[in-house]
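Q: I'm a student working through a structural biology exercise. My instructor gave each of us a protein and asked us to get a predicted structure, then write a short paragraph describing it. Mine is DNA-binding response regulator. I'm not confident about reading structure output yet, so if you can add a plain explanation after the tokens, that would really help. Here is the sequence I was given:
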Amino acid sequence: MSQDNTLRLNLPANTSVLRILIVEDDPMMQLGLEQSLMAHPQLEIVGQAEDGYLGVQAALKLKPDLVVMDIGLPRLDGIAATQQIKAALPETHVVMLTSHQTDTEIIAALSSGADAYCIKGASVERLLSAIAAAVEGATYLDPQVARRVIDNLKPPSPSGNTANLSQRELEVLRLMVEGLSNPEIAQKLYLSPNTVKTHVRGIMNKLSVDDRVQAAVVALRSGLV
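A: Happy to help. First, here is the predicted structure for DNA-binding response regulator. I'll explain a few features afterward.
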């Protein structure tokens, strides 16, 4: 990942410094992540680990705000490591990096409890968007991952009232699929953050889903966006 000091990280206003743990076994990728993230004053790298087992240990010791987690790790893969971290530290956000190698890997990543899913080696800007969305409480799904998921998931439940979404809810849903956080959606649509939260809850209820990733998948699979 190349370093670009001109990129901005749009974190929530109440976030001062985000403490990050990097779990990555490739030394060059680890260095690239460290250099890219350290370019931003709101981000602090508090630790690094080379495998999933050490990643879990480091997370339990350091209690970072966010973990950047590779999937293909030795000893304990990133999916299992994420599950253990989220079980012990539910407030810790996890951004999963996938090499986009197999459909099975992607589907498993979606069930691990991670908050964001990026293609390994993607642009710094995309990684920062994933981090910002995760911290906001949104779920970021890389467009390339979304397409593979759509091809492998069952059609949306017939109980989902996809036709009952209002025009405003469809607008919000399109921006959710793009990975925008609630404040970013609010800014684009000239709405208050609380209004956006209300729309997001309404969308998930109407689509019969439990989180934003599922909402995005249903939206793409159904051709809503």
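A: Here are two points you could use in your paragraph. The first strand starts at residue 18 and ends at 23. Residues 31 and 70 are 13 Å apart (CA to CA). It's a good idea to check both against the output above yourself.
Q: Great, thank you!
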